[in-house]
Amino acid sequence: MAAPHRCTALVSRPLLAAGLLGMFVLCLLPLLLMAERLLEDPAAITGLIETRTFLLLLWTVLLGLGAAGIALLVGLPFGFLVSRTDVLGGPLLRAVGIVPILLPPIMLAMTWTMLLPLRGPVMCALILGFSSFPLVALFTARAAERIDARREEAALLTGGLGAVLAMELPLILPSALGGSLLAFVVAINDFALPDYVSSVGRKFNVYAGEVFSTWQVDGNEARAVATALPLLALTAAVVLPLLRARARRGGVTIDASFQHPRPLKLGPWRAPATLFCLAVVTVGALLPIGRLTYESGGGSRVFSGVSIRRDAWSQGGGAAQNTNPVPAPTLNATGVTDAVAAAQAAARAAAGGSPASVAAPQGRQRSVDPAAPEVQAALEASATDDMSDFGGGLPAFGRNIAKAFARALDLSRESLLWSLLFALGAATLATPLALILGHAIARGRRGVTLEFLAILPLAAPGTLFGIGSIVLWNHDATGAFYDSGALVTVLFAGRFLAVATLICAGAVRSFDRRLEESAELAGASPAGRLFGIVTPGIWTSLAGSWIAVFALSVRELDAAVLVPAANDTAMFRVFNAVHFGRDDFVSALSLLVVFAILLPGLLWTLFSRRRLRFLP
Amino acid sequence: MSTRQQAAIAIRGLTVQAGDKRIMGPVDLDVAEGEHVLLVGPSGSGKSTLLRAIAGLEAPAAGEVHLFGRTVSVAGGASVAPQDREVGLLFQGGALWPHMTVLQTLLFVLKRRGVTGAEATARAHELLELVDLTGIDGQKAPTLSGGEAQRLSLARALASEPRILLLDEPLGPLDAPRRAALLDQLSGLGTRLGLTVLHVTHDPGEAERVASRTVSISDEGTLSAASR
After folding, report:
1. Predicted ipTM beyond 0.85
2. Which residues of B touch A155 (CB under 8 A)?
3. Chain A touched by B97 (CB under 8 Å)
4. Alpha-carbon distance A64 to A71, whole Å?
């Protein structure tokens, strides 16, 4: 329902100005600068018009469609079952069902590539689909819970459970499709997962990787932006209609007379439905965490010097892999350095004869530091021929786990602390801004436009946003800031402000505007109403925003991989380490990252009686 | 034949609870076949809950429900599924399905009764004529006026060919002239189709003229008197 035109504004202008300024600096400026580089060198677009690019884009779209389809097939029934039926342990399954979207997809891949013989784009689509099914489940659950009990009972009277499902499916399907479109957007913009899956199987490229390698090769920003344009256009084509549909629905479907539906009794279907939900959370969350735990306790290692070649590729540029493959070296520090150097040289050559001595003008080329924890751990592991310590039963398992965690903490304590601090800072910076922007989107006159602007950083490939941040901050005047952790906090806040803003906007939309209007009549200022009336009413959503930004920041990789100051995060260590091999250090560090991601949600679950809200 | 066998609705010691809190009962009630019984009482007394228990949408904490001599609900025991009770329920506010048109709403119900194709369309049009709702087949539920929505809700309830019609404040959202018109229509249809009607209202004055008798439900959720 469209909001009626008001004579006065519900939005505080000074607050809105502050919010817009924050959004501009954090989110839009990096992207605007990138656009400006493209305008300076429009010829860069011509590089796009070639068969290879079209084919790459086509494959990426197919990968995205596959992931979206899997997310829909899994998420729709799962979301409905855990939210609306009497499946055993429904609330618990529902909570655990969020975990796969919080886990970095690379961690799902670490398990799935061990258990399934699949590789390549099919494996990638499977992992991305399972990783993003909670998006579909969340949207499905919200839509299903908004069907008035009496409507459902009217269907029940006419034909039992079958009639209820037939009546409700058309009401739920649009929301579920919306969730799967978001899964599509996540899939086409992901770079780190295809990179990892390529490293353990046959090589394949995706479009988001092309943006990364285009820039890595010679630091040509205009070409990186040009390369990202098709992804941006695809994302906009998906996201804009979703935003419009959301604005049209208005989100205010629950009024005073609304009766919440009761859990549907599944009868003989209860056991199979419970098993289905259990299987989904097992495959998507419990199995990856369980497998990492098993490996931390001395389970079989996967350690191969072949993977060093992939690492060389990711550091030296994808073009090197295509034109002049680097032979797999033996795993030692010299080999690492040689491989990287060779890949970088090949990459430059492949990029069209850029002088080998010319470094990227803005981004610092990463080099392998033999003292880096993951390199040390890999070298240590390679020196042993022990492929499995898992022979001494539970006591040995316990000892191994303790040893692995002690080692991971010893080698990566600082990285973990930095990750937590960056995420803490990003969430704390983004949430108040999101409240102001979300309120303006829901109550302001140009809500849809503002929402589109807010969502841009999320719609752009993470690599492009990372490059934009480098271009914005890597100057003499801001050098200290660029080299510090503050840049990482700003980078993460800018990248995920959109998520927090969407959560807040949804919450404000479903918050009765008459409560604000009555405060207005009582003389409360716009800011007073926002903080005194709206904030207490949607505080569980604000907590949801904070936790979402925190979790996404801890697991962020695509933008972080480019920014030198972000190379100290624990997730980056894991990403680097898995390219060297898999041992108890990698598994224990991965589990610590997972723990950090889930920590705020766990604390909330333990100490709060209110349900955390990501969707209103 | 006992009273229970003769009654269209026979309720014995029916109590409904939400957790530990009793929200209705114990109630004993007999409604003879073809009767139009008015159930009155203050808000929150459990009138709607009684209808829902008869329809099978609430499980009894104690007592039994029998419809046409068949035991359909027993506390702690098996119960007959709502769709198999031959009961139609007119919900408060209509509870129409917002994504369906007038015609689709009826076809949806008829399909569940095994009526499909041209036969279903013809039957749907008959029902629409019966409730005076012709010419708006393609309109979606949210676009209907209050009176039209209630009549479509009535047609939907009749589409499953019930023997008992349960009316939950059916006149609530309407203005005075429309209330009178719909009431006459409900009464006429009940008589014409031989339906047993249990009609909940908090305003007995408006419906007394069409009812066979009136039963009061108290604040505590017990039936205390039959006024006629």
Report:
1. no
2. 97, 108
3. yes
4. 10
A479 touches chain B (CB under 8 A): no
Bridge partners (DSSP) listed for residue B39? B200, B215
Q: Which residues of B touch A158 (CB under 8 A)?
A: 83, 108-109, 112-113, 156, 159-160
A565-612 pLDDT per residue, tens? 888 888 888 887 776 666 678 888 889 999 999 888 888 877 776 766
Dump pLDDT digits (tens) for A43-94.
777 767 778 888 888 989 999 999 999 999 999 999 999 999 999 999 899 9
Consecutive H or E run containing B25: strand B21-32
Which of B67, B99, B154 should one mutate to test binding to chain A, selecting the residue with the greatest count of A CBs within 10 A? B99
Cβ atoms A354, A218 nearer than 8 A: yes
Flag whether pLDDT at A319 surpasses 70.
Answer: no
**Strand, helix or coil at B166?**
strand
Cα B67 to Cα B60: distance, rounded to the nearest angstrom:
15
Could you report the per-residue pLDDT of A109-148, keeping only the tens digit for each?
Answer: 888 887 888 788 899 999 999 999 999 998 899 889 888 8
Q: Answer whether A159 touches B (CB < 8 Å).
A: yes
Q: Residue B108 in contact with residue B90, Cβ under 8 Å?
A: no
Q: How far is CA A236 from the centre of its chain?
A: 17
**Long-range contacts at A109-114 (CB < 8 A, ≥ 24 apart):** A109/A193, A109/A196, A109/A197, A110/A196, A110/A288, A110/A291, A110/A292, A110/A578, A110/A582, A110/A586, A110/A590, A111/A287, A111/A288, A111/A291, A111/A292, A112/A288, A113/A197, A113/A200, A113/A201, A114/A291, A114/A302
As a whole number of angstroms, the distance between CA A439 and CA B204 comes to 47
Nearest CB neighbour to B81, from listed A155, A160, A167: A160
